[in-house]
């Protein structure tokens, strides 16, 4: 059998930006890549680390305002690299705190301005209200999206991005409009923890298919079912989706 082809997954700032189980997104990508016969190589990138040479997919999680402060300078330092990857169509998933910092700016409740890397055309304002709870949202691209939100920053989209989904339960980006998350090129930004990908495998498969297409110019191979497990696991996901988030 041929050696599995590597897919390099870069996880941004797992030390400071990784809450409410966001690391589950990395685990899902690893496992689903393996099921398709690829070798996932996970690079954990924290401030001052060397930026990996090969990057096929980028993920980043949420964090407190203090965590965002810790990584901000470094994020700006590697900004050009991230812009280049984004422009060339690299799939990315940014959750909550890093979703905010992929935008232009985050003005905290205290009025401090945390400059974002400006890849996504959006702005975030800190508020005294926390938006907390389960979220159900409808996306034309991915179908129903489920997750959990907990943020006091509220995000407003500019004309350069599309919303990821429209909220039917919970708040999403802010308490005013009904949008959740953002889409730009092959980037998915979202407020949803949970983690997002275990509950929403359609998004995981989009990220994987895009990474594989970009790197090897091939459609990602059909899911390999080593112990008859792949199919039942998607079935379990479906059951968990229908029971977990509707409370
Ligand atoms: N600190 C940000 C906020 O509360 C992000 C929180 C998070 O990542 N869950 O808005």
TrEMBL record:
Binding site for substrate: 130
Catalytic activity: L-glutamine + H2O = L-glutamate + NH4(+); beta-D-GlcNAc-(1->4)-Mur2Ac(oyl-L-Ala-gamma-D-Glu-L-Lys-D-Ala-D-Ala)-di-trans,octa-cis-undecaprenyl diphosphate + L-glutamine + ATP + H2O = beta-D-GlcNAc-(1->4)-Mur2Ac(oyl-L-Ala-D-isoglutaminyl-L-Lys-D-Ala-D-Ala)-di-trans,octa-cis-undecaprenyl diphosphate + L-glutamate + ADP + phosphate + H(+)
Record's function text: The lipid II isoglutaminyl synthase complex catalyzes the formation of alpha-D-isoglutamine in the cell wall lipid II stem peptide. The GatD subunit catalyzes the hydrolysis of glutamine to glutamate and ammonia. The resulting ammonia molecule is channeled to the active site of MurT.
Subunit record text: Forms a heterodimer with MurT.
Full protein name: Lipid II isoglutaminyl synthase (glutamine-hydrolyzing) subunit GatD
Species the sequence originates in: Nesterenkonia aurantiaca
Segments passing through the bilayer: none
Record domain CobB/CobQ-like glutamine amidotransferase: where: 11-200
One annotated GO biological process: peptidoglycan biosynthetic process
């Amino acid at each position: 059998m041929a050696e599995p082809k590597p897919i390099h997954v870069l996880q941004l700032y797992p030390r400071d930006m990784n809450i409410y189980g966001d690391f589950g997104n990395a685990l899902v990508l690893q496992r689903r890549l393996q099921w398709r016969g690829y070798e996932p190589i996970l690079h954990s990138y924290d401030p001052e680390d060397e930026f990996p040479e090969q990057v096929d997919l980028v993920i980043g999680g949420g964090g407190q305002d203090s965590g965002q402060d810790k990584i901000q300078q470094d994020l700006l330092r590697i900004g050009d690299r991230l812009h280049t990857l984004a422009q060339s169509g690299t799939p990315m998933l940014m959750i909550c705190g890093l979703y905010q910092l992929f935008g232009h700016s985050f003005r905290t409740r205290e009025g401090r301005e945390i400059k974002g890397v400006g890849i996504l055309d959006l702005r975030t304002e800190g508020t005294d209200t926390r938006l907390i709870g389960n979220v159900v949202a409808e996306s034309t691209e991915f179908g129903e999206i489920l997750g959990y939100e907990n943020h006091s920053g509220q995000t407003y989209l500019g004309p350069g991005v599309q919303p990821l989904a429209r909220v039917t339960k919970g708040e999403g980006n802010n308490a005013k409009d009904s949008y959740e998350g953002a889409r730009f090129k092959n980037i998915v930004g979202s407020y949803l923890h949970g983690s997002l990908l275990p509950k929403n495998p359609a998004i995981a498969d989009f990220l994987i298919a895009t990474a594989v297409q970009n790197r090897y110019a091939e459609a990602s191979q059909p899911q390999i079912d080593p112990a008859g497990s792949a199919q039942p696991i998607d079935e379990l996901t479906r059951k968990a989706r229908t029971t977990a988030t509707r409370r």
